[in-house]
Automatic annotation (TrEMBL):
This is Glycosyltransferase family 92 protein. Its main location: membrane. It comes from Microctonus hyperodae. It holds the Pfam family Glyco_transf_92. Keywords: Glycosyltransferase, Membrane, Transferase, Transmembrane, Transmembrane helix. One of its GO terms (cellular component) is membrane. The lineage of its organism: Eukaryota, Metazoa, Ecdysozoa, Arthropoda, Hexapoda.
Length: 452
């Protein structure tokens, strides 16, 4: 017989019926039941999640209300668990913590000091006076302040210190801020003269830091000192220069640093410029003194490093490598040693080209030894434009300091001409070469820049 299909999925083949439709129907019903059970379980899980979440929120709200109460409970970080609760002994209300009624006028929100305490009701023992409060700020800011890292190792190079202060005064600085870790007696007397008599210097204490070596904090915490100086000067000076005692920012076409800044900002849009970076130029102390220094008119000129050392390394360091900078302190968040670490939003650094100004850095070879003198060099006498005024100012100050601090007189200098140098390629037995050597020596005396 043939095959016929019944209406309910009943299949009849050769007279034998096979019930397949009913089994498929039962399978579908069982699947639907499983899906329904899973949906119910998911719904219950969601309900449980929101219930637990609501319980946590309510618990936190009640705990916050309890902490804000006056029941003497507070959250103290420390102990066996950072979030553990400890019972504090109730303390009476203190008058200096009373709330101020009325509107929030300036006299209510201008604080005088800050302190760090372990508990809100603990008595402060380390109140720090707030600098530059709005009512204490000067109406007009001065132009330029100089910030110097802490003086250490019983620093006692008095002539170098006097030269630094007097030259930066000529360059337009209004004030110099230094930090005293350890200084010698003569240096202390000199700085006291500049601070109390001249009003050019502020010497701040930097003692008792309990540091064993630079492994703990680099160079007597210079970054803390630089940022302290930055924030102290923030509302007193338009610009702040952060340099060392052996570094001088020397303009090439201007006489003062302020003139240089105005000249640079007039050429370039200065709306976003909050710092000026100057490339470093090493004037190694191992190089011979300027050949004309022996005919100087005074011992002072022969003792000033900016006049003695005129030969510098030909290649300058790129910006951010041994460079130093002048900044607008109100636009700076954090100061670094060689460049600004963080500005306010929308501000940045202007890299000053070397033909406008560079950083004169007078020091010994940075890696030890004397190999640095073999590097290509050039004679740079830009600082000589300050020679006359610098010499006179140092002479006057040294005369006063000699009476007050009993400083020794500067040693007299030799009046002999510098020894003539012979070029190694010239043969002394040749008369022609002797004549060339003589002419070479004269050229060296009159134009030392020709020798590199």
């Amino acid at each position: 017989m043939g095959t016929r299909r019944a209406g309910f999925g009943l299949t009849i083949t050769n007279g034998n019926a096979s019930v397949t439709g009913s089994s498929n129907l039962n399978f579908s019903r069982s699947n639907a039941g499983i899906l329904k059970d899973r949906a119910n379980m998911s719904f219950m899980l969601v309900i449980m999640f929101f219930a637990v979440f609501g319980l946590i929120v309510l618990t936190e709200i009640f705990l916050i209300d309890e902490r804000r109460g006056i029941n003497g409970r507070t959250n103290v970080h420390g102990g066996s668990h950072p979030n553990s609760l400890h019972r504090l002994v109730p303390m009476p209300d203190r008058p200096d913590y009373e709330e101020v009624a009325g509107d929030f006028a300036d006299e209510y929100i201008s604080f005088k000091a800050v302190s760090i305490v372990a508990r809100l009701r603990a008595s402060p023992t380390n109140r720090i006076h707030i600098q530059n409060r709005p009512q204490d700020r000067p109406v007009e800011r001065q132009n330029l302040a100089i910030c110097v890292k802490p003086l250490h190792f019983n620093y006692n190079r008095v002539l170098q210190l006097v030269e630094f202060i007097e030259l930066y005064k000529i360059l337009g600085a209004n004030h110099v801020i230094l930090y005293n870790d350890t200084i010698g007696d003569e240096t202390g007397c000199t700085l006291e003269y500049y601070e109390k008599t001249r009003g050019l210097v502020s010497l701040l204490p930097w003692h008792g830091l309990d540091m064993i070596s630079q492994r703990e904090i680099r160079t007597e915490a210079l970054f803390a000192a630089l940022n302290d100086c930055l924030y102290r000067s923030m509302y007193k000076y338009e610009y702040v220069a952060l340099v060392d005692l052996d570094e001088f920012i020397i303009p090439r076409h201007n006489d003062t640093i302020i003139q240089l800044i105005r000249w640079m900002t007039s050429r370039i849009s200065s709306k976003s410029t909050s710092a000026l970076s100057f490339q470093n130029a090493f004037f190694y102390l191992q190089w011979p003194d300027d050949p004309l220094i022996t005919i100087a008119k005074s011992p002072t000129q022969a003792g000033l490093v900016t006049l003695r050392k005129t030969r510098r390394r030909l290649k300058l360091h790129p910006h951010k490598q041994r460079s130093k900078y002048i900044c607008k302190p109100r636009d700076i968040v954090e100061a670094g040693n060689h460049f600004v670490w963080e500005f306010l939003a929308g501000h940045g650094t202007l890299n000053v080209p070397s033909d406008a100004a560079i950083l004169h850095h007078y020091r010994v070879c940075e890696f030890g030894g004397d190999d640095c003198v073999k590097t290509p060099s050039v004679v740079d006498k830009t600082a000589y434009k300050y020679k006359k005024q610098l010499t006179n100012d140092v002479d006057e100050s040294w005369l006063e300091l000699g009476k007050i601090c009993r400083l020794p007189q500067l040693e007299p200098i030799s009046r002999q001409l510098p020894e003539r140098r012979r070029h190694p390629l010239f043969k002394p037995n040749s008369l022609l070469n002797d004549m060339k050597t003589q002419r070479y020596s004269v050229d060296f005396l009159t134009n030392p820049s020709r020798i590199v």
